[in-house]
Every structure is written in C-alpha cells, then in structure tokens.
Design brief:
The structure holds two protein chains of two kinds. By secondary structure, chain A is α/β, with parallel strands linked by helices. In chain A, 39% of the residues lie in helices and 26% in strands. Chain A folds into two domains: 232 residues, Rossmann fold, CATH 3.40.50; 60 residues, 2-Layer Sandwich (Alpha-Beta Plaits), CATH 3.30.70. In chain A, strand 11, helix 8 and strand 12 form a beta-alpha-beta unit. Chain B has two domains: 202 residues, P-loop containing nucleotide triphosphate hydrolases (Rossmann fold, 3-Layer(aba) Sandwich), CATH 3.40.50; 64 residues, Alpha-Beta Plaits, CATH 3.30.70. In chain B, the strands form two sheets. Chain B has a nine-stranded mixed beta sheet with strand order 3-6-7-2-8-1-9-10-11, sandwiched between helices. In chain B, strand 10, helix 7 and strand 11 form a beta-alpha-beta unit. The chains are: A alpha/beta, B alpha/beta.
C-alpha cells in the first residue's frame, strides 16, 4: 500500500502573492520548518532567497539553457539588412552603417539566422542559469537561479518542479511547498499549473488588494481556486475588512490573518523561520494553525 | 528628457512608494515630469493620484492562423518555431497552434511555402494615459490576465512617453529578468530600492550585476532602515556605491501608503528628502548627453 498511500496523501502547495514583499517567503519558511520531512521548491527563480535561510547541503547542480541569442559573424555579414526587415523584436539595428543585434531585445527566435543569405548569424546558447537541489534541516530543497538578465523563467520553474517531484517519489515525501515569484506572468503561471492548492499572501494596502484581484484571475484561469492569507493585517484594518469582504463576495476562503511582527525580520537575520526562532510567539501560533488547517483540508 | 527607473530585485521593497513620492515632489516644484508604471503585471502607481483617463491603446501580437486547405503537413513551420507552439501530427493530418506559447516572431509564416499560414492580432494588454489635476501625464502598462510575458506591453508604455517632459520616472517590475531589463535598459539612471535584510541584500547584488553589465549609472535607497541589519550599508560602502537616501521604518508611513496617500504630501521634510535624491543624481549625472 506504500505507493497508493503516498498518492492519496501527497500534496503540492504553491504560495504566491501578485504584489511583491507581502511575506511569501517568510510564511513559506515557517510552513517548511513546521514539517518533519518536506520538499521546498523556490520558484522565484530570478530572486531566489529561501536558500539563505535553509543553507542546503548541495547535492546536485544542473545547467539550465534559458534560450539563445543571435550574434552576427562580422566577417561574413554584407550588411544587406534582410534580417532587419524580418526581426519583429526591434533587435536588429544599424550603427555606423553596420548591422548590429541588441542582446537585450533579441528573443532568440532563430528567424534571422535562418533567412540570412550569407549564413552570417549564429545562435549562441544562454547557459549561465542553474538548478540546484540538496538537503536542509527539514527535508529537501530545490531551487533555480536564473542568471541576471536571462529569459524563460517559466521553463526554469518547470524544471525545478519536475525535480521536486522526482525527489518526492524517490524519497517518499508527502508535501511539496512552492515559494512563488511575484507578478502574474509566465513564472507564476508555471508555478500554479496543476498544483493541489494555491495560497495567496496579501497585505491590506491598495496595491495589495489590486494585485490580489489580478492574481486571483490568473489562478482561476489556470483552473485552480486560491485561498488567502492576509499578512500585516493590523496595518490598516479597514483595508483588511475590504479584502475579507472581497474574498467573501468571490467565494474565496480566507485561511487566516497575521499581524505585522518585526520579530519575523529578526528571525530571518538569525537564519531561522519565525516558528523556529520563537515557536511560542503569537505569529508562530497563528501560522501553525493555518498550516494544520491547510493539511487537513485535503 | 532624462529617464529615471525605480527598480529592485526583491518585490515589495517600496518601488512604487518611492516612484509616486518622487513624482509628486517634481510636480509640486513645478518640474515637468511624467510617471510611467512599467510593472505591467501588477500596476498600482496611478491609484495614488487624482487622474482622468486621456486615452487607451491596445497592445497586440500577431499569431499564426493555419489554413488547412493549403497545408501539406510538411512540418517546416514546426521546425522553424523555436517556442514549440505548432503542434503537428502529419500521418493523421493534425496541425494546431498553441497560442499561449507563441511569441509572434513570424518564423512559421516565413517557413510555409504553400501559403497556408496567415496571421491575426491578439491582445496582450493596454497602455492607458491619464492626466492629473495639473495636466501631467501618467502612463500605465497593464497586461491581460493569463498573458505570459509583459515585455511588449512595457516597451509600448515607454514608447508612449511624450518628449516634452523633462524627467520621466519609470516604476519598474521586480526581479532581474526580461521585464526588469526592458525597463532599465531605456533609462539614463536607476534608483535601486532595497531593505536592510539578507533577502534585500542578496537581490540587490543581483540587480547591481545586471546594471553594471548594462553600463548604467545607479544609486541605492534603503527603505525601512532600522529593521534588519547593517549588511547592505556595509556592502555599499565597500563597493563605493551611492547611498541616495535612507528611510527609517515607520508604521505611519506604511499606514499612509496602505490608504493610497503620499508621504511627501503629508510631510514637507519627506518632500525635501525626495528633492535631495534628485540633487544627488543630477550632481553626478546631469551633464550626460541625454536627448531632450
């Protein structure tokens, strides 16, 4: 019954927020350290942070090819400008009568390299991004680090999640917690696609509510129903009520509320989650309650 | 026009807080400025001002449409597509465009020798121009929900800036990948906003690496000083990076922000600090050959 049991119990939970800095990673760290054996996957691949708290012993490292960039071979180029006409990303331009390609604007579509009559454009692999995995004090951790400026963060998120699932299977670990990126674009969509539960961490500010509405739309479009944690709820109680009303109206469950607590920053400085740093404090108790509720909801 | 981007690797450090207060301060001091919200996935800057909508334009992308009558199922379009957005099974004559994966590069149309691919525009988002009470523009980039990449919408918003303003403030998306790069690469100067925590420091280092690669001048604002530790300060000192301003952590400021109010409007000393930021920037970078 081992595999059947594992199938029935396993759960993949994504924590996202729309707005940045609402406390995703702190809450994620707390959930992770409340578990005996868990997999944490940091899907915020362009600013991965959780490894700073968990300091995982690295066991594996894999290169991630984020994409390709077009480069002109100057000795072959006749400056015919045909590539300029075809490029839809405004990446090819003239400088001192010479055709140049902007690395920033290039989308790596290969079209210019295919149509160049002189074969003067080569495609160069972007291979400075990595995916890492290893062990930390409460289980396993997987994280991606997209090299600054590289693209395709969604694909790296998929690779991180794939690895997390492999580890889950081989080690028989029940839960995977995904720490998601801010925003509502490709890395977020890759984080929430097909997970068992999506948790949105918001805060009672105008931006918090606006972004909650947008990110909820994204989650619903991915056929998932999110639930919400309101962090720093005492910052503006009328805004907190507004968020609760909105949740109510849209039939979205509020899992709980956490007041602003500077001890969370203090715990981070010590390289700990709040539940490790001060298990008896109010925030830790509330987080534990939310976590138990989430696990029992399945 | 001199373009200043307000950016940060870590989300929620106070980009919009700084951008909106800087903008308010410029207008208050009768400086002709425009605010562009480039955080197209989560745009929030306009909410801090009294505005009326001036116009709205749609940003679109072309997506292939396959005419199955002309298609020979030769698979050349599938080979040309680097985004796996053409699904093809020649033996059973199935071909389908996976629209969400398409980047609109047009390679498939070029590949097709049988005139079986035409293109249709699909909406990615909108650029909305607003005017405030003193008739200054605020421009907002906003992607549609479900759109993968905000890059094209961000670029369109920056292109929509009218050249008669002296200073443009670009409220950047978080992170260090494409949305951030498309914003900061157009700027003359970048203000990085960070917080004095290990997460803030780690993300700031990544942002700095990108900006140095792009050869862009930049300075740092430390928000919520007093929380956390002194590691960010130490790093800036070691690397000789300009610290433009420190804003102490204050629940009052956080509370004003939560209500959509501007600290510079309520507190003239904060307005003074915002002006000082510009002074520091232009003392060092005011003579560059930017275009007016």
């Amino acid at each position: 019954m081992r595999y059947l049991k594992q199938f029935l119990q396993k759960m993949e939970i994504a924590i996202i927020s729309g707005k940045g800095g609402t406390g995703k990673s702190s809450i994620c760290a707390a959930f992770a350290t409340l578990s005996k054996n868990v997999i944490v996957a940091d899907c915020d691949v362009d600013s991965a942070n959780l490894y700073l708290l968990f300091n995982p012993a690295q066991e594996e490292k894999e290169v991630f090819i984020s994409g390709y960039k077009a480069v002109i071979i100057a000795s072959k180029c006749t400056n015919c400008k045909i590539c300029m006409e075809y490029c839809r990303f405004d990446a090819i331009f003239l400088k001192d009568d010479e055709v140049k390609i902007s690395k920033i604007a290039c989308d790596g579509c290969f079209l210019c390299s295919r149509i160049c009559p002189e074969n003067a454009i080569k495609m160069v692999r972007e291979n400075k991004s990595y995916m890492y995995s290893g062990s930390f004090r409460n289980g396993k951790m997987v994280y991606g680090r997209l090299a600054p400026g590289e693209e395709n963060s969604g694909k790296l998120v998929n690779m991180v999640r794939q690895k997390a699932k492999e580890i889950q299977k081989t080690n028989g670990i029940e839960h995977i917690i995904l720490d998601g990126p801010p925003g509502i674009g490709c890395p977020v969509i890759s984080t929430i696609t097909g997970v068992d539960k999506v948790l949105i961490v918001t805060e009672p500010t105008i931006s918090g509510l606006n972004d909650l509405v947008r990110v909820t739309g994204t989650v619903i479009k991915s056929d998932r129903k999110p639930s919400v944690i309101i962090n720093k709820c005492d910052l503006n109680s009328s805004m907190t009520n507004k968020i609760l009303e909105w949740c109510d109206k849209n039939e979205i469950q509020a899992e709980g509320m956490l007041p602003f607590d500077s001890e969370i920053v203090e715990s981070m400085l010590q390289g700990k989650s709040i539940t490790e740093y001060d298990p008896a404090c109010g925030s830790s108790k509330k987080i534990r309650k939310i976590w138990d509720k989430i696990l029992n909801d399945k | 026009m001199f373009k200043i981007a307000i950016a940060s690797g870590k989300g929620g450090t106070g980009k919009t807080f700084i951008a909106t207060n800087l903008f308010y301060t410029l207008l208050k001091n009768l400086i002709n400025a425009v605010l562009v919200d480039c955080d197209a996935e989560a745009p929030d800057a306009v909410a801090f001002f009294k505005v009326r909508q001036f116009n709205i334009t749609e940003v679109t992308q072309l997506i292939p449409v396959i005419n199955k009558r002309n298609c020979t199922f030769c698979s050349k379009c599938h080979e040309y597509c680097n985004y796996n957005s053409i699904f093809i099974l020649p033996p059973v004559k199935i071909i389908q465009v996976i629209e969400d994966l398409c980047h609109g590069c047009g390679a498939c149309s070029v590949a097709c020798e049988f005139n079986a691919i035409s293109e249709k525009p699909v909406s990615l988002g909108h650029i909305t121009k607003y005017l405030n009470v003193s008739n200054h523009f605020l421009i907002e980039a906003r992607t549609n929900i479900g759109v993968m990449s905000p890059a094209k919408v961000i670029k369109a918003a920056i292109r929509a800036i009218d050249n008669d303003a002296d200073i443009a403030l670009l409220d950047s998306p978080p992170g260090t990948s494409c949305p951030f790069i498309h914003t900061v690469s157009t700027a003359d100067y970048i203000i990085l906003v960070t917080e004095p925590t290990p997460f803030g420091l780690s993300d700031m280092k990544q942002s700095i690496e990108v900006l140095q690669n792009l050869n862009k001048p930049f300075g740092v604002i430390i928000n919520r000083a007093g929380l956390g530790n002194r590691q960010v300060h130490k790093y800036l000192l070691d690397k000789d990076i300009d610290l433009l301003l420190e804003i102490p952590f204050s629940k009052d400021i956080a509370c004003l922000y939560s209500k959509g109010m501007l600290a510079a409007e309520k507190d003239t000393s904060f307005e003074g600090q915002m002006l000082e930021v510009f002074e520091t920037i232009f003392a060092k970078n005011g003579n560059s050959n930017y275009q007016r």
